[in-house]
Amino acid sequence: MKITALLVLKCNPEARIKSDPVILANASDGYSRRSSVKEFIVSVGRTVAKQTLPGQRQSVQYEEYKVHSYNRSGLCALGFMDDHYPVQSAFSLLSQVLDEYQKNFDDSWRAAQADNTEPWPYLNEALTKFQHKTIDSVPAQGEMLDILIEKSSDLSADSQETTDGRSFIFRPKELGIVHGNNSRYWRMPPDNTDEPAKLLDVCWIEICGSIDIKKLNPGKKYQIGFKVSLTNGARGWSPDSVVRIIAKIGKKGKFNWRTLNLEGYERKKIFDIPDNLLIYIPRNASFSEEKLHFGLYEIWGGNWKSGLKIYHAFIKEAGKAVKSTEANTAQVHFTSAQLKEN
């Protein structure tokens, strides 16, 4: 199990056939630093990156190399690995590389016109760290979840909440849904409705939100979850496509999470997931500037998925029903039309 090289490239989706991707960062093992091998890796890397559309992940075989590629809105990470390196671990690593690149360089890559020859220490460290062990075999599973959940923004001002701090609802447009603004991947609901967001076709699900913990009742436990359903034609939810619902308080807090597989859930039936994710709100929460971060993720399976509907996320005091300030009744109601295939 080996990684030969890691690359980060800028791709131009508008001119991907005419314009070669630009090398932003490049790390390789000792053998691959030989000029002939390095030229081969760079050439193949450009070719694969050019053929990887925004939002797409793919794996291709080039001679003895398995090349994994992930294009995130024009910023593309590639890994040259052997056949023994697990595919889902490869894509988890590439996602982490892109996260770190954007964290360090923000959007400066968009202006790049020529290959960068300066080394990026993080990429060399990642090449060494995960050379013979996968991202899932070290604390990186937790590290990966930390990276994902810290990407959530403060959406508390947009949530529908009760006046006693016992329950909060986050509708689809009040959540951070990766690629949610792209109609190729998601169908978002109209404003001010209870209609769900519908997943059309993605292989990478990231949905997140956050709220100031001072809005919650201190010393209480809160349940975190999502109200969802699956259409009749939902696909891609095989046993290896495990959904994780995660919550934690503050950037340095410990996260709490639950995993589940949606394959066995009844189609066209609305249900809450998970049924047992609880988090304790500290007694000093009223004076804290920390946030409760939460999210729903499926980034490990590698399957293209469709047919998941997200009605809302909820945070409710344990044992309390979720309420909506826009509803006259104690629960949010859904019409039969919302269960129909769109």
Quick summary:
This protein has 342 residues and is α+β, with helices and mostly antiparallel strands. It has 4 helices and 18 strands.
Defining traits:
alpha+beta; 32% strand; 4 helices; Beta-Lactamase; 18 strands; 342 residues; five-stranded antiparallel beta sheet
CA-based gyration radius: 21 Å
What is the 3D shape?
Answer: globular
Order of helices and strands: EEHEEEHHHEEEEEEEEEEEEE
CATH topology of the largest domain: Jelly Rolls
Task: Please name the CATH architecture of the largest domain.
Answer: Sandwich
Q: What's the domain count?
A: 2
Mean pLDDT: 80
Strand proportion, as a percent range, falls in 25-35%
CATH superfamily of the largest domain: Galactose-binding domain-like
User: Roughly how much helix do the residues carry, as a percent range?
Assistant: 10-25%
Note the gap between the termini: 44 Å
Query: Which spans of ≥5 residues are poorly predicted at pLDDT below 50?
Result: 135-141, 152-158, 322-342
Task: Please summarize the sheet with the most strands.
Answer: 8 strands, antiparallel
For this structure, what is the CATH class of the largest domain?
A: Mainly Beta
**Number of E-type strands:** 18
* DSSP summary: helix tally: 4
Instruction: Decide which structural class fits the backbone.
Output: alpha+beta
Family: Belongs to the synaptobrevin family.
InterPro entries: Longin-like_dom_sf, Longin_dom, PP2-like
Organism: Davidia involucrata
Main location: membrane
Structure description:
The protein has 342 residues and is of the alpha+beta class. The protein has two domains: 3-138, 2-Layer Sandwich (Beta-Lactamase), CATH 3.30.450.50; 149-339, Jelly Rolls, CATH 2.60.120. It is built from four helices and 18 strands. The chain has helices at residues 35-50, 87-105, 121-129, 140-149, and strands at 3-10, 22-28, 57-62, 65-72, 75-81, 160-161, 167-170, 176-177, 186-187, 197-199, 205-212, 221-235, 243-249, 255-260, 271-273, 278-280, 291-298, 306-317. Strands 6, 7, 9, 10, 12, 15, 16 and 18 form an eight-stranded antiparallel beta sheet that branches. A hairpin with a 5-residue loop joins strand 13 (243-249) and strand 14. It is globular, with a radius of gyration of 21 Å. It starts with a strand and ends in a 25-residue tail after the last strand. The model is unreliable at 135-141, 152-158 and 322-342 (pLDDT under 50).
